[in-house]
């Protein structure tokens, strides 16, 4: 086959590699001037490895995904930790025993923390919104201190206006585990994500064209199949209207005379400032450098699509596009934008491997 693949992030790049190894000719296009999608990283002008599109921390419970990516990178062990600024305190998030004890001046055991959370939670039935999830889990005070303000900044909506799945991603712990993720495999690519993508796409049957729009090659490059990881509404020229997304503005800063400014990789600001969080990249990469580079994230309505907005009316609109997509026999839709889902990186890799397998099974 000759396969046109749209998007050089995880979805497109994994499919490109799998199909090329099976002997198929690949043209991979991306409208950006680089590979790697939002996971792209680069050395800034000060010599610090940064993530232009915000922090990307790899974590997975899938041994298959970890072993697959290990073909293209060595790893640096890294467990991400996040603090939230509440009043004048920096407290672990997800909420754990340390959070509760420090915030309220208590000295509770694990068992007592469980009992405390049980006493303050406000059960909701049925669980429909993210507000229902948070109040049922930690009650109104912790909701106001950690979640409501952050959510309003991040999404431009109240917790009560978002589907339950948004808040359900964040656990609550009764022990002192302060890791942001609990996955089995928590690592960072040792030489960065871009180097990993370069190795993945280094195959004689893969041609990569950057700064290239899908429409410019859609008819110009004869192909047997399309693997599409762009916005599904754009594929259909917005036939039913645009799918809503939340975007981000990134403000990068370098401090030449400070080797570290934070105790952890990311600090959240649920109630202060217009930005949601600051990430300091040297925590993530382990890089040694006399200065340090950070990024602040300012959520906004306009700009590149980053987060599908999980609301019932948006899901209903997506279903109209999904019905069209399911009728396609020569197009595979894969990834966050094509499937209008918030996927972690490992989920995209797993889905891409599955999609490539299905495509190969149908063409053997």
UniProtKB/TrEMBL annotation:
InterPro entries in alphabetical order: UDP-GALP_mutase (IPR004379), UDP-GalPyranose_mutase_C (IPR015899)
Keywords: FAD, Flavoprotein, Isomerase
Listed cofactors: FAD
Residue ranges constituting the UDP-galactopyranose mutase C-terminal domain according to the UniProt record: 145-342
GO CC annotations on file: cytosol
Pfam families associated with the record: GLF (PF03275), NAD_binding_8 (PF13450)
Signal peptide range: none
GO molecular function terms attached to this record: flavin adenine dinucleotide binding; UDP-galactopyranose mutase activity
Family membership noted in the UniProt record: Belongs to the UDP-galactopyranose/dTDP-fucopyranose mutase family.
Record-given protein name: UDP-galactopyranose mutase
Organism: Aquabacterium olei
Gene (name only): glf
